[in-house]
Amino acid sequence: RSIILSNPRKRNALSLSMLQSLREDLLHDVKSKELRVIVISAEGPVFCSGHDLKELASEDDVKHHSQVFEICAEVMTLIQKLPVPVIAKVNGLATAAGCQLVASCDIAVASEKSQFATPGVNIGLFCSTPAVALGRSLPRKVALEMLFTGEPLSAQEALMHGLVSKVVPEDKLEEETMKISHKICESSKSVLALGKATFYRQITQDLDTAYKMTTQVMVDNLTLRDGQEGIEAFIQKRKPVWSH
Prior knowledge:
Blueprint: E1 2-5, H1 16-27, E2 38-42, E3 46-48, H2 62-81, E4 86-90, E5 93-95, H3 97-104, E6 107-111, E7 115-117, H4 128-135, H5 140-149, E8 153-154, H6 155-161, E9 166-168, H7 173-185, H8 189-202, H9 207-223, H10 225-235
Parallel strand pairs: 1-2, 2-4, 3-5, 4-6, 5-7, 6-9
Antiparallel strand pairs: 7-8
Helix pairs in contact: 1-2, 2-3, 3-4, 4-5, 8-9
């Protein structure tokens, strides 16, 4: 499924309505057997500029501000809770909560012209919520330099530090994203769902706890029909026939 941020006049800002739409699109028909991967892209030269600052201009509207940041956190964590991989296809600038969105996706493919920044410090609103995703994707000192200075990373720097998975020429962006998507579609949906959920659970654990948990998951994986089918197909030198 393709989700396109389509408000280029406002630099695809994550207004409250945009965040609500994004949440709805991510959850739409999520249990469908046909849904195998979600790709998030954007119209225009800016992938996403972050929160709509006009919504945050009044210091008195605390309730509205809380709602904006709460739904944003919900969307970012939802991406990792979904049973299918989510790919960010980035062709342009991703700043603040837009950079947070890229960092929150499972995979990110970027064009060479893309840039990534958390410039909130420059306008007196430190990117504290984007820092949650950034600090879990980048080395601490790289994340903090971005947060303290607001200076952007180039696409190649983002690749070097692990914020994105691949960088390609702009004219190859669609092709590369589809290549990854099609490869994902060749695997069992139930196995991928189990693997994704387990990855995010184990990554916050200490080493012993992580191995204890994943050891049990490997055993559970073998009880899945697709787990046995995949092994049998490998032994018999044939392509597996997944259960959906």
